Every structure is written in C-alpha cells, then in structure tokens.
C-alpha cells in the first residue's frame, strides 16, 4: 500500500502541474473557455455569473497558476493536509462543471488540458473521478508520506518561486502569443489543405433480413436486405480539420480563395470594441510598407465586427486597405491577439505576430 500511495501522490501532483502549465501556455484560450462557462451559468442559474465575464483573463492566470502551485506543494509534501483540502475543493468544483456539461450538453470541450488534449464532457468527468480517486488514496494514507521535502522557510521559498514562475509564464503568453500553438492555424500549416478531408469517407452498412442483422462493406444489391443503419469507419480522417474558414465582403461575396493565394499579410481585428488602439500608427506603417514590398505582399484586414462598426473604427484609427469579414470564433482560433498579424504564402502560415511584436517589412520578406 505504501508504494501504491506514493504512485498516486506522484501522479496527483504531476497532473495538476501539467494541467496548469498547458493552460498557462494559452491563457487567452483558457479565458475564452471560462467565458463560455460563465455565459452558460448566467443563463441557467442567474445573471450573477456575468460579473466574472470582464475578468476571465485574470481568472485564467490565477486558476491555472493555482493548479501549478498546488501540484508543486503536493510533490514537496508542503503543508500536505491543507493542500489536499484545497485540491478537494477544486476537484469537486471541476467535477461539477464537467458533469453538468456532460449531462446537459452545455460545453462540448472542458478545456482541461487546453487545446493540447481534447476531451469530451464525459471523458473530462471520468478524468475528474480518477483524480478524486488519487486524492482519496493520498488523503487516507498520508501516514506513508511523512517525509516533507521542504519545511519552514525553505518550503515557503519554493512555493513563492513556483508561484512567480507560473504567473510569469501566463503573463508572458498573454502579452505575446502562446509558446506552443496547438490550433489548426499554427505556423507551418496549410489552411487550404486542412479544409479538405485527408481520406475519402468509408462506410459500413447494417442490413436486416428475416430478423437477422448483417454488416456489409458495400451497399448490397440484393433487395431482400432492408437498410437498418450506416456508420462512417474513418470519421476523423474523412472530416476536414478546418471546416469554418470563410472570408467574405460586406455584400456577402466569398473571397476565401483570394486570401489563400499569393503572399498575404492579414491584419486580424477580432472585435473593434476590445482591440488595442494604441498600436495603430505602427500597424498602419507596416501595412503601407508591406504593400510597397518587392515581395509583392498584399495586406488585407479581416474582422468579425459589423460593417458599420468597422467602418467607424477604421476611420477613427486611419486604417488603410481592403477589409473583409469572418466568423468571430475563427478569428480567435487564428491568432490570440486583437489585433494581430498572420503572414500567408499560398495559404501556408509562415509567421504570426502579436500587436506587442509588430515586425518590420524586411522581417516579413525574410520569412517568404
């Protein structure tokens, strides 16, 4: 039992550290997931949860850092009993979220491990139950974990360092871009290719005759068999990775292929109401410089705001150039920056830039 308890203790601490670091890698994505939960709760349980919506990014870094710190505290066995009680509160809270999402089909992806590992609601709930099991083993067998690896001032110092590192990782990612991009629009991906299925769909047919059911790889020509059901054998490979990328103008004309052809510098303005306006003098200089580049870079602006809102915004910040529209969720997946830049060559993502890291034209030309 001693060895089993130590294995559970190690797994419990490691999973919390891993989960927290994955979320801190992309705090904007974690904040978007929190917004989704708060919007659901505000509809189902009252408007109280709306007060958290303006603070999701702060909560994203706080909760993710807390996971890391608690994981470190578990592994150090620092104030283990108190740490385990805080862990229990978190596990019960997350367990409620995942069960509620699964049972009532509210949030289809819990974001437990960011975009690195996608879990269905029931898989997320099962994961929380496993963690509760690990917690119970550690809690009720704490006598096998009496040795503390950092006592007194040393323990406080380690926990302080862990807190500072975790918060620093999150704040750095928030002010720039994720360290690791797990989304379909990451650097190196060909958007056009990801809009096509990797394989042709393959099916199997369940047919019935005289009370007997039989599976066929091809639809039977024998009319005595009656159709019962059909199943796709390769659902992941036969479904495009990107299904909702579409660019259009104010009249509704599709410009998707135009965007995916040639050298394009996309300025993504997700929402004019929350876009950082202080950088637009520098942004405008880059757009003008790119248009004159010897590499024939065509700058385009893409937004999810309404035509009326964006027209007023572009005049306000003196934003030049052609602008198109796209779905808000697509733009949030493309880049975790509002505004932000994406450099494309025939639909291949060559580089991405946060508005805190606006490049010079020569850097764009080097990337091409």
From TrEMBL:
Location, primary (coarse class): membrane
The subcellular location is: Membrane
The Methylamine utilisation protein MauE domain, residue ranges? 1-139
Q: Which organism is it from?
A: Hymenobacter actinosclerus
A Gene Ontology term for the protein's cellular component = membrane
Q: Does the keyword Nucleotide-binding apply?
A: no
For this protein, the record's Pfam families field holds: MauE
**UniProt topology in membrane:** Multi-pass membrane protein
Q: For this UniProt entry, which segments traverse the membrane? A: 7-24, 58-76, 83-102, 122-140, 152-174
Keywords of this entry: Membrane, Transmembrane, Transmembrane helix
What protein am I looking at? Methylamine utilisation protein MauE domain-containing protein
Q: Name the source's superkingdom.
A: Bacteria
Task: Please give the biological process terms from Gene Ontology that the record holds.
Answer: methylamine metabolic process
